[in-house]
Amino acid sequence: MQKIILVGKPNVGKSSLFNRLAGRRIAITSDVSGTTRDTNKTIIEIYDRSCVLIDSGGLDDSSELFKNVKAKTLAEARSSDAIIFMVDGKMMPSDEDKALYYALLKLNLPTALVINKIDSKKDELRSYEFANFGAKTSFAISVSHNAGIDELADWIYKQLKDEIRPDVGEDLDEFLENFGDDGEVVREMSAREDYERKNIQVGIIGRVNVGKSSLLNALVKESRAVVSDIAGTTIDPVNETFVYEDRVFEFVDTAGIRKRGKIEGIERYALNRTESALELADIALLVLDSSEPLTELDERIAGLAAKFELGVIIVLNKWDKSEEDFDKFSREIRDKFKFLAYAPIISVSALGGKRVHKIYPLILEVYKNYTQKIQTARLNEAIEEAVKAHPIPREKGKSVKIYYAVQFGFAPPKIALVMNRPRALHFSYKRYLTNKLREKFDLSGTPIVLIPKNRSGSDEENEGRSE
């Protein structure tokens, strides 16, 4: 898919234009210069064509960190198909802007000069000063007023070839209509074809400075994210794709999370962006710093993976200890993160690249389990065996029965328990059923959602989560 990159100095409005063209707020925008530090990517549609739009970090030499940002921006521009160079129309043209524009022209790519913040007649007159750049293609726009965006979109469209991407979904009540009162299948659940074609979305989460950006770089085998000892370097989620065994992994390096009392300025937006990224993810790589003790914050971050019902792989980064130490640390994790008992644990050294390659097959394994379709007959056999071995406690002397179980969704496996008294199914018994299902089926790395329902179709979705 073709790539269009937004380039310019900090605070010229690149992230605002990125959000405008994407049709939703993805990148963080603020008046703080240098808010965007890593390149941010999303797929956008211009009329009937698609492309990858890239919001790059600002071109600035004010510090060592931002010199790294500039280097990565220019490297990303070289691999793009077209460049949008943005300047601030509220300011007079500068020699620095002109030099940057001429440097980009040397890449021999279609390049448009975009003069942003043209909000008044006075701004429009000032914009004429940029004519001395000698740009063959230029646009005077106002992202905040949505002026001139259509003309720019027309130019982008001319640079693109046609691209299409699919989307999928499933509904419980509609699905249950395909089952009779006795649990007989009227129409079998569709296969995992869509899940076998789509990109696997992998979110990388953890505290600040646990090595998430280093892990992303090691996974995609290039220096993709800015790595720095400065806590909070990553603000926007950083997206990158990697192909392994004909499957496309779409990694997202999210902002490191601090204790609430230490979250400052734009990092508050970063936390929201992290949660938004996890809403779209399939699998979370929970990165822990093995050189430090586990903290309450680690547990809270792990809770985000559980909250969004993601497949989970726990990654112990900065590992240089023995196998005996690994077993000890793993037991500590299991004790502290009981709600992630299903998550496999792997030790790596992201900076050195040690054992990082073992994460790829593990992602495939967890994703297979996460999107697994359990045969209805086998599912009910497992439930019947569990109930026979340990009957459901009665409610006020009345029996509680599970008539049948049906899987109605994937990612993660969602199972409806059709019952006579769904509210009487205690959470401890749901956990018992979940454990029995894990004994019968390969469900490593994935949560299981159990929803008690009665025959009339009402449910207890808020109370029915098993994990």
From TrEMBL:
TM region(s), chain numbering: none
An example Gene Ontology biological process: ribosome biogenesis
Cell membrane is among the record's keywords: no
Residue positions binding GTP 2: 206-213, 253-257, 317-320
CDD domains cross-referenced by the UniProt entry: EngA1 (cd01894), EngA2 (cd01895)
A single MF term (Gene Ontology): ribosome binding
Protein name (Swiss-Prot/TrEMBL): GTPase Der
Keyword Chloroplast in annotation: no
Subunit relationships: Associates with the 50S ribosomal subunit.
Pfam families the UniProt entry points to: KH_dom-like (PF14714), MMR_HSR1 (PF01926)
UniProt keywords, alphabetically: GTP-binding, Nucleotide-binding, Repeat, Ribosome biogenesis
Organism: Campylobacter showae RM3277
Signal peptide: none
Binding site for GTP 1: 8-15, 55-59, 116-119
Role noted for this protein: GTPase that plays an essential role in the late steps of ribosome biogenesis.
